[in-house]
């Protein structure tokens, strides 16, 4: 059969090995050549050892793990790869004597951290039909007379090189690993299990094509006949290559098993990941360059500055990371042409202003530099406004730069310490897919990764062009629902039919429950609660089901007038007094302190029906999540606490190492942190990233300690009324909840914060101390949020093969720059006359709606205290217990009960396990999380997204090649186009007060839905709730 020559991936080897590569032998011996590509200098074909003497062989080789290291004695100087990275198809060459060491040529690279390494670039031959088979299975179209895409040829090479026993062992191991993985389609899991079962039957001689016993699949096969019946091009075009394992010949079964094993071992079982990544790395690309930092700093200043400045505006204007990612592309290309190729050499590495073409790794580093800080800081967006401005607490010390700087830096950097502990659980594992990252990776790939021309279901447009077409269309279309024809956005058409019908407006209205079969034509509204193109379908379905139950309960509370909710709007997130008006917090304060006398002459605070349901669900989801995720991921949780212990041991060992070095005592690198040589060989991206040095645990813990010290300085030097034990509490609660919360975010794309839990506990512990509650709430929430933000970027670095230390430096610098930008803008905002006052509603619209909510929460939970709230709503405190019980029940039903029944009734084992897989698609944490979307959102913001999710899930099954090529690019284009359009619309017309008055812009608001649909409105002077003498 015809063979094609393909390029292997580049291999890094440390300079300590003096340019010679030890090569391990296999049990059956080696034969063949290595083709070393020397560029303009030609190429060499070097023979390998056929029967390698044991004294010359490298370290022992495990055929299952398929890995070896240069030195088993020094993990710091080890390189892990696979023997197949050096082998050509050894059946194609005569047996020749070889040498145990291969000479290498040095390849200088601009990338920091690789100047002391050699790079081998070699090629090999692979069966062309194997390439066709792999391309078909991956859904990648091939073009006549053009080379195969590199990802296809790379996987095909691994398929040809992999032995049957090795492939079967890999497949078994990964099927067991993914058995509870909701992101793996059930059809794929059934196929893999069927392949394993039939391969074992062949091996046992139970079945054959002729009805006679067959030899073991592991017997040496004829490479030419491996794809004799499956791998013909015509076969792929009519789709008949998808054979049932029961109908496969031994060669077909071998090929299928080796293909799936190669996908597991060298790439990813998820089509989502494969669509935006490569299974190989190009180590020659510069990453941490001067121009990458320059471009990142420019757009971080713009993005963080704009977001901080407009954070007090209603509605807010923001610049997203994806917008900056798009703007980075022309900036990087401009720097490529403008900057000279001049630089300096530091520690053997040349740093140039212009190291060559702007590449995807530089672009991604700059994007991560921006993403870690573009959203602003919690302290500058909320705490400092409420502390400084006179209409809130008006404390003078909060204006001092020392206080604002230490508190901001402490809250921003404390999450780094926890990010280091999370790596092993949500970065390294394959199952930690992080579906929310895919659009960012897709946009980066569309802009900078050159892709082969291919025809996919009659579509020939490249992802690059498709992205800009979508951006242009989204930009133009968003003008209609946002400005020209606003009824397209708020399509509450049922209320148009009966604008004065109270019940219809409450149930179907955009301000009510939003029960509407088609509530919007605005893609921005469809994407408001979740991204339907990105999140797994089971996440969307669980979320929507939770919202349906939430709407039902809210309606029940409302129509039974539970706790006076019928006297208030059904779905408002505001807090009200006993006259049905918004709660005036200033009426219960004296000099910023809670005044019980004023409180008793005014009113307790009351929640709407939706807000009552949301807070109750928040209390339930914390215990539910901890119990359910903790039990279902028990081994991960136990290992996490062991890793916390190991991290502190690493700190001690690292300190000991440097003390020994300073005191001239003998010390080896084994005395240091062990984190960077943790065995992660089962995960393909981890194996590739192992070429780069890992960030050690002591760096993360050191950042945590420094941040903690800054926080102590902030609360003790200035009179914040905050105890130091409160900081330990914030760290402790994150230590308990952060891993389960991040696990579910990494697996499903659903996440929630600890802000409600922190303010509840602090309110109980420190009643009457609202400022202390605000500070601890900010730190407790930011540790969780920033840790997840940092760890998300680290997963991106794995998918894009970026050096972890380069990413870490960019995150630290980006966070520091962003903090100073936000502080600078904050001080400018504080000088704006009348900021955060109602008068701003008709001018700048800087009315500080979110800051008002934050201030009200500080009074209710910090000054008034949770005890009084639970006296008004006593059932809420039982939500913690209910959440734990529900979590235990669902864990028992989904995990131990089916296992027990399968053992009890082995004749029904298959049916029971199939039912178990179906039951596991229901996730009670995501289900309850759907309820959290209410107040002020409702079903009208989720129904459109549900339809989009169902549509693209069907496309994924029916037209997987199209889905793989365009879906995430479509998502990125929609988000980017809408963001640009919103900014232009604001500054072009809305900022100037230019309005279009016509039916299409008024019909949605000319009804009770927007005029105030209240079931039992109060008359003037009428109140509800307890009398003043019975106030809690």
From TrEMBL:
InterPro entries listed in its UniProt record: Oligpept_transpt (IPR004648), OPT (IPR004813)
Residue stretches of biased makeup (Basic residues): 1-11
Keywords, alphabetical: Membrane, Peptide transport, Protein transport, Transmembrane, Transmembrane helix, Transport
Q: According to its UniProt record, where is this protein located?
A: Membrane
In what ranges is there compositional bias, type Polar residues? Answer: 206-220
> Transmembrane residues, as ranges?
292-310, 364-389, 401-420, 461-480, 541-559, 606-631, 698-718, 725-744, 750-767, 812-830, 878-901, 938-955, 967-989
One annotated GO molecular function is:
oligopeptide transmembrane transporter activity
Provide a GO CC annotation, any one: membrane
Please give the residue ranges the record annotates as the region Disordered: 1-23, 54-74, 206-228
Single biological process term from Gene Ontology: protein transport
User: In the UniProt record, does the keyword Membrane occur?
Assistant: yes
Query: What membrane topology term does the record carry?
Result: Multi-pass membrane protein
Q: Which family does it belong to?
A: Belongs to the oligopeptide OPT transporter family.
Record's protein name: OPT oligopeptide transporter protein-domain-containing protein
What species is given as this protein's source? Answer: Yarrowia lipolytica (Candida lipolytica)
Native organism taxonomy: Eukaryota, Fungi, Dikarya, Ascomycota, Saccharomycotina
């Amino acid at each position: 059969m015809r063979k094609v020559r393909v390029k292997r991936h580049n291999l890094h080897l440390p300079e300590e090995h003096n340019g010679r590569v030890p090569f391990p032998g296999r049990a059956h011996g080696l034969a063949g050549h290595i083709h070393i590509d020397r560029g303009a200098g030609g190429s060499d074909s070097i023979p390998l050892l056929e029967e390698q003497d044991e004294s010359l062989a490298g370290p022992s080789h495990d055929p299952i793990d398929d890995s070896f290291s240069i030195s088993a004695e020094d993990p710091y100087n080890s390189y892990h790869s696979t023997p197949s990275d050096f082998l050509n198809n050894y059946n194609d060459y005569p047996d020749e004597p070889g040498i145990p060491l291969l000479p290498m040529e040095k390849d200088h690279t601009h990338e920091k951290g690789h100047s002391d390494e050699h790079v081998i670039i070699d090629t090999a031959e692979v069966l062309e039909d194997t390439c066709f088979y792999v391309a078909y299975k991956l859904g990648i179209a091939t073009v006549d007379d053009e080379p195969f895409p590199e990802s296809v040829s790379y996987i095909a090479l691994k398929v040809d090189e992999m032995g049957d026993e090795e492939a079967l062992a890999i497949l078994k191991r990964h099927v067991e690993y993914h058995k509870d993985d909701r992101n793996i389609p059930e059809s794929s899991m059934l196929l893999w299990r069927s392949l394993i079962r039939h391969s074992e039957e062949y091996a046992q001689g139970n079945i054959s094509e002729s009805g006679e016993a067959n030899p073991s699949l592991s017997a040496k096969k004829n490479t030419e006949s491996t794809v004799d019946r499956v791998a013909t091009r015509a076969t792929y075009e009519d789709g008949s290559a998808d054979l049932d394992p029961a109908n496969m010949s031994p060669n077909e079964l071998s090929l299928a098993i080796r293909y799936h094993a190669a996908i597991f071992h060298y790439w990813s079982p998820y089509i989502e990941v494969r669509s935006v990544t490569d299974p190989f790395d190009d180590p020659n690309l510069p990453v941490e360059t001067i121009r990458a930092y320059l471009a990142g700093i420019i757009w971080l200043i713009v993005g963080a500055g704009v977001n901080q400045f407009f954070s007090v505006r209603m509605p807010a204007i923001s610049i997203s990371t994806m917008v900056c990612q798009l703007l980075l592309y022309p900036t990087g290309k401009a720097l490529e042409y403008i900057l000279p190729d001049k630089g300096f050499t530091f520690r053997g590495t040349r740093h140039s202003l212009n190291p060559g073409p702007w590449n995807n790794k530089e672009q991604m580093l700059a994007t991560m530099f921006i993403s870690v800080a573009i959203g602003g800081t919690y302290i500058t967006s909320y705490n400092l406004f409420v502390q400084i401005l006179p209409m809130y607490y008006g404390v003078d010390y909060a204006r001092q730069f020392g206080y604002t700087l230490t508190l901001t830096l402490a809250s921003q950097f404390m999450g780094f310490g926890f990010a280091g502990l999370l790596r092993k659980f949500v970065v390294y594992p394959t199952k930690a897919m992080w579906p929310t990252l895919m659009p960012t990776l897709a946009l980066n790939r569309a802009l900078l990764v050159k892709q082969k021309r291919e025809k996919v279901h009659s579509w020939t447009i490249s992802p690059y062009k498709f992205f800009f077409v979508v951006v242009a269309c989204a930009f133009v279309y968003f003008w209609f629902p946002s400005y020209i024809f606003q009824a397209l956005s708020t399509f509450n058409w049922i209320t148009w039919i009966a604008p004065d019908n109270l019940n219809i407006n409450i149930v179907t209205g955009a301000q009510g429950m939003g029960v509407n079969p088609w509530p919007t034509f605005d893609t921005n509204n469809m994407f408001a609660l979740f991204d339907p193109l990105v999140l797994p379908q089971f996440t969307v379905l669980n979320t929507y089901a939770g919202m349906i139950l939430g709407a039902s309960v809210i309606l029940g509370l409302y129509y039974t007038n539970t706790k006076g909710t019928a006297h208030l709007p059904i779905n408002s997130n505001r807090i009200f007094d006993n006259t049905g008006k918004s709660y005036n917090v200033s009426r219960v304060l004296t000099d910023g302190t809670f005044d019980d006398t004023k409180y008793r002459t005014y009113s307790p605070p009351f929640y709407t029906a939706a807000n009552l349901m949301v807070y109750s669900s928040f209390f339930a989801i914390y215990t539910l999540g901890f119990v359910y995720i903790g039990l279902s991921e028990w081994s991960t949780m136990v290992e996490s606490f062991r890793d916390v212990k190991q991290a502190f041991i690493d700190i001690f060992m690292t300190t000991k190492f440097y003390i020994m070095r300073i005191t001239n005592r003998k010390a080896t690198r084994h005395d240091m942190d062990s984190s960077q040589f943790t065995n992660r060989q089962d995960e393909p991206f981890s194996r590739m990233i192992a070429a780069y040095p890992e960030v050690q645990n002591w760096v993360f813990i050191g950042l945590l300690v420094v941040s903690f010290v800054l926080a102590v300085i902030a609360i003790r030097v200035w009179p914040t009324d905050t105890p130091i034990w409160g900081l330990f509490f914030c760290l402790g609660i994150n230590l308990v909840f952060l891993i389960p919360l991040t696990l579910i975010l990494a697996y499903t794309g659903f996440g929630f914060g600890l802000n409600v839990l922190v303010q509840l506990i602090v309110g109980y512990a420190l009643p009457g101390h609202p400022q202390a509650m605000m500070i601890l709430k900010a730190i407790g929430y930011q540790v969780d949020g920033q840790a997840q933000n940092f760890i998300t970027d680290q997963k991106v670095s794995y998918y894009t093969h970026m050096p972890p230390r380069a990413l870490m430096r960019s995150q630290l610098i980006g966070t520091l720059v962003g903090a100073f930008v936000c502080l600078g803008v904050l001080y400018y905002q504080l000088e704006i006359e009348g900021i955060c006052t109602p008068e701003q509603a008709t001018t700048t619209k800087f009315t500080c709606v979110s800051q008002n909510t934050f201030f009200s929460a500080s009074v209710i939970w910090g000054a008034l205290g949770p005890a009084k709230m639970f006296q008004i709503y006593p059932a809420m405190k039982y939500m913690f217990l209910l959440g734990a019980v529900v979590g235990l029940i669902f864990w028992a039903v989904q995990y131990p009960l089916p296992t027990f029944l399968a053992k009890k009734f082995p004749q029904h084992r298959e049916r029971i396990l199939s039912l178990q897989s179906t039951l596991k698609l229901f996730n009670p944490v995501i289900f309850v999380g759907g309820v959290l979307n209410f107040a002020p959102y409702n079903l009208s913001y989720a129904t459109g997204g549900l339809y989009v999710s169902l549509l693209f899930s069907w496309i994924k099954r029916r037209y997987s090649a199209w889905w793989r090529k365009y879906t995430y690019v479509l998502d990125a284009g929609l988000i980017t186009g809408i963001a640009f359009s919103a900014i232009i619309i604001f500054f072009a017309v809305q900022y100037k007060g230019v309005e279009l008055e016509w039916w299409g812009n008024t019909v949605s608001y000319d009804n009770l839905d927007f005029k105030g649909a209240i079931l039992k409105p109060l008359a003037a002077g009428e109140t509800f709730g307890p009398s003043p003498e019975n106030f809690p």
